[in-house]
Fold this sequence. Notes:
The complex is a heterodimer of chains A (317) and B (665). Chain A is 71% helix and 1% strand. Chain A is built from 11 helices and 1 strand. In chain A, α4 runs antiparallel to α5, α5 runs antiparallel to α7 (176-192) and α7 runs antiparallel to α9 (220-245). Chain A is globular, with a radius of gyration of 19 Å. The N and C termini of chain A lie far apart (48 Å). Chain B contains 25 helices and 5 strands. Chain B has a two-stranded antiparallel ribbon with strand order 1-2. The radius of gyration of chain B is 26 Å and the shape is globular. Chain B has 665 residues and is mainly alpha-helical. Chain B has helices at residues 2-22, 29-49, 76-99, 112-125, 129-147, 154-182, 190-195, 200-218, 227-233, 236-261, 271-290, 294-321, 325-360, 371-374, 376-389, 396-409, 417-449, 456-459, 466-484, 486-501, 528-549, 575-578, 580-590, 617-637, 645-664, and strands at residues 57-61, 70-74, 554-557, 594-598, 609-613. In chain B, α3 (76-99) packs parallel to α13 (325-360), α11 runs parallel beside α17 (417-449) and α13 (325-360) packs antiparallel against α19 (466-484). In chain B, β1 and β2 form a beta hairpin. At the A-B interface, β1, α3, α4, α5 and α9 of A face α15, α16, α17, α21 and β3 of B. Chain B: Residues 126-411 form the NADH:quinone oxidoreductase/Mrp antiporter transmembrane domain. Chain B: The chain crosses the membrane at residues 29-50, 79-101, 160-184, 204-226, 267-290, 297-319, 339-359, 380-405, 425-450, 471-490, 526-546, 645-664.
Amino acid sequence: MTFLFDLFAQAAQMALVLALAPVLIGFTRKVKARLLRRRGPPLLQPWYDLIRLLRKDVVLAHDASWLYRAAPYLIFSTTWVAASLVPTFATGLMFGWIADLIALTALLGAARFFLALAGMDVGTSFGGIGSSRETMFGSLAEPATIMIAFIVSLIAGSTQLSEVAAYMASDFALRVSVLFALIGLIIVAIAENGRIPVDNPATHLELTMVHEAMILEYSGRHLAIIEMASALKLLLYVSLIGCIFFPFGIAPPDGSLADMGYGVAFYVVKIFVAGFLLALFEVSTAKMRIFRVSDFLGAALMLGLLGTLLVFVTRSL
Amino acid sequence: MPLYLALLCVGALIGVGVASIRYKDRADVTRLVYGLTGGLCAAIFLAVIVPRGAHVLQTTLPLGLPWIGMRFRIDALSAFFLAVVNLGGAAASVYAIGYGAHEKSPMRVLPFFPAFIAGMNGVVMADDAFTFLVAWEFMSLSSWALVISHHDHAENRAAAYIYLLMASFGTFCLLMAFGVLGGATGAHDFDTIRAIPKDAWKSGLVLALVILGAGSKAGLVPLHIWLPLAHPAAPSHVSALMSGVMTKVAIYGFIRMAFDLLGPPAFWWSIHPLAFGAASALIGVLFATVQSDLKKLLAYSTIENVGIIFVALGLALAFKANGQALPAALAFTAALFHVFNHALFKSTLFFGAGAVLGATGEKNIEKLGGLIRSMPKTAFVFLGGCMAIAALPPLNGFVSEWLVFQAILLSPSLPQWILKLLTPAVGVTLALSAALGAGAYVRAFGVVFLGRPRSDAAEQAQETDQWSLRAMFALIALCLLAGITPSFMIDTISPAAAEYVGGRMPAQSQIGWFTIAPIAESRSSYNGLLVFAFIGLSAFAMAQTIKKFFPRPLRRAPPWDCGYVDPTPASQYTASSFAQPVRRALGAVAFSAREKLDMPLPGETRAAHFSVEIGDRFIDYIYAPLTKAVLFCAGRLNVVNFLSIQEYIALVFAALVFLLILVAL
C-alpha cells in the first residue's frame, strides 16, 4: 500500500510539472503584458499553442537526418526526468535518489547537447549561430551550477536534493555563501532559459536570438515538444530555487495526503511569485550584447567559487 | 598461472612482430598479424580478469642482465591496467583488420604494432627498475616507429622527432628517479626499494622526476607538446592505442611510484598532481575547442582527461596522507574508473576519426559535414563516444566525473590550508573543463557529421568496413554498460584501492538496482540504469502519445532559414565560426589566437580572406627559450670539436679527476 502511495506521489509529481510548466510561461507573459499596460494573452495560451502545433503537419528540411527527428524527444525526456527529480511539493519521493544535484546538471547538459546538435543538423547559418552561442553560454552556466551545487551540498552534507531541502527547511540560517548561491543560481536560471537580458524568447530578430535560432527549422509536433521542454526547464529552475532556498511547506518524506496537499498549494504559490518576479525583472531591463553575457555568467561562476571557498574555509574554524 | 600466461602472450606478441617481417609477402599478412595480436590481447585480458582473491603473483625470468634476471609481478593494480591495455589492444587490432587494409606501406606498421602492445604490457608487469625501464623504452621506441610510419610528410617527421625527444627526456627522468630511489644500495627490484626508508628531500626529488617522466608520457601540461603532433601523425588504430592506452600506462607508472614505491605519502605530494592536473584539464579542453584537425582535437582532449585523472590521484594522495582511507579510496576509484572509461571512449573516437579519414581522406573538419547520411553507423558510434566523453548521463564518462566531484566534496575535511584553498579552485577548473568539453564535442560532431557536405570528398563518403564497425560498436556498448552498471566497475577496482590507499568503498553491488552511493545513500547516490530507463520510457511515452492522438503526416521541404535562400554549403557555420565566441572570450588569455581579416576595399573584386592562428604559449614561453639556450650552449661548446689529440686526452683526464674528487667527497 505504501508502495502504491509512493508510486502515486511520484507520478503526481511528474504530471504536475508537466501540467504547470506552460502555465508558468503563460503567467509570466500575462504579468509582463499587464506591467506594460497591455491585456496579454490568456493564462493557458501556451497550452493552446502546444495543442495547435501538435495538430499541424511536420515540415522537415531535405537535409535533416534522423538525429534531427530524435532530438526533440531526447531533449524533452532528459528535461522531464531532470524536472521530476527536483522536489516540488514533497521530499523523499520514490525515485528522488536515482540522481543528485550534479547528475541533474548533467542531464540538463545532455538536453543542451542535443539541442545544439539539432541546430547544426540542417546546415543553415542561423542554426549554427544559435548552437555556437548556446554552447558558449552553457560552458559558463554549467560550471556555475556545479559550484552552486557544491555550496549547497557542502552546507547540507549531501548532494541529494531531498536531503538538501530537508536540511534547509530544518536549519534555516542566513549565510553569505547561501546568498551567493542564490544570486548565482538566479543568474544561471535567467541565462539558461534564454530570458531577457540574455536572450529574448519572443524575438525573431536573427542576430540577437539564441534559443530560437537553433529551433528555427522545427515545426509541428517537433516544435511543440521542444517548446514543452523549454517550459519544463524554466519550471525546473524555479522549483530548484524554491526547494533549496525557500523550502517552506514541502511535505516530509513520509508525509500524509494532507501534507502533500499543503505542499502543492505552497508550490503553486511559489511558482506564481517566481513568475511575477521574473516578469518584473524582464520589463525593467534590456537585452545585453552577446559578448557581455560571458561577463554576466562569469559573475555567477565567481560567486559560486567564492561561496565554495567560504564554505571550505569556514568549515575548519 | 595468469602471470605465466600473460608473459607467454607478451613473448608471442613480439614473435608476431618479428614473424610479420619474415612473411611480409603473404597477401593476408595484415589480417594475420592483427588477428593474432587481437587474440593474444584477448588472452591476456581474460587471464587477468579471473578473480585471484588477494594473491600477488610474482616471478623472475632468467632474461636480461646476467645474475639479475627480470622480475614480473601482477597485483590488483597491475591486473586492472593489464585489462585496460589489452582491452584497448584487442579493440585496436579488430579495428585494424579492416582499417589496416588502407595502409600503403604495411611493413612500416605491422612489426611495431604487436611490439608496442608487448612493451605496454611489460611496463605494467615489471617488478624491478631494469625491467620497467627496458619495457618503457620498448614502448616508447616502437610507438615512435609507428608515429613516423607515414614519413613522407614533413610534419610527421617533425612530430616523430619531437616525440623522440620528449620520450627520451621522460625515460631519462625515470632513470634518475630509480637512481635516487635505489641510492647507494643500488637496489633495483621493487621489493627492496619499497623497504628503503626515504627522507623528505629524497621523496620530493623522486616525485618531481616522476611527474616529469610519467607526466611527459601522459601528456601533462606543460609537457604535452608532443601529443597533439604525434597522435595525428600515427595511423588511427595506433593513435587510439597511444591516446587511449599508452597515456594510461604512464599513469600506471605514476601510481606505482607515488603510491607504492615511495612509501607513505606526505600531504604536499598531492599539490603537484592537483595543480598540474587541473591546468592540463583546462588547457587541454580549451585547445580542443579551437582545433580544426579532428585527430588533433581528440589529442588535446586526451590532455584534458589525463588532467582529470591526475586531479583524482592528487586527491587520493592528499586523503591518504591524512589517514582518511574512505575518501582516498573514493578518489582513487574515480581515477581508475576514468582511466578505464577514457580508454574506451577515446579509442572509439579515434576509430571513428580513422573511419572518417579513410572514407574522405580528410582530417580537416572544415571540409567535412553531412557524414551522418553517408556513414550512419560510424556517426552513431561517434555520437555515443562524444556523449560519453562529454560526461552526459547515462554513459560512463559521467560516472567517473561524478565520483571525482564527490571526492572534491569530501575535501573540506583536509586539515592543510593550502589544500583547502586549492581544492575548490581545482573543482571549478574541472567543472569548467567538463562544460567546455561538452561544447568541444558538440562542435566536433556537428561540423563533421551534421549539416551539408562542405567538399566533394565528404559528399562521396562511404560507410567504413565491417571489422572497424565491430570494434567501435563493441567499445560503445561497453561505454553504455559501464555507465548503467557502474557498481560492478567500482567493486572491481576496490581491491586495488584497498592495496594502494588502504581503504575500500562500501560494496556497491549490494545496494541493489545498480545504484552507487560512494559514502552513504543519504549523502549522494546515482543510478545510471534507472536514469537510462526513465529517459527511454518518457521519450517513448511521448512519441506514442503523439502518434495516438495527433497522427500528422511529415513532409520534406527546403529549409526555411528565415526566408534567406542559400544554395551553398559554404554559408553553414564552420568549425572556426562555431568556436568564435569561446575564442573571443578566452582567446587573448588562454591561447595566442589571432584573427586575420583581409577585406578588399569597396570596388575591389578579389575575395575577402579570413584566417585564425592559434599559438601555444607553452611553446612560446618554455620550449622556444629552451631551444634557444640549448643552441647557444651548443654553439659555445663547438670549439671542443676542433681540439688536438693531446688536448682531448687532457680533457678526458681532467674529467676523470673531477669525477674521482666528486666520488671521494
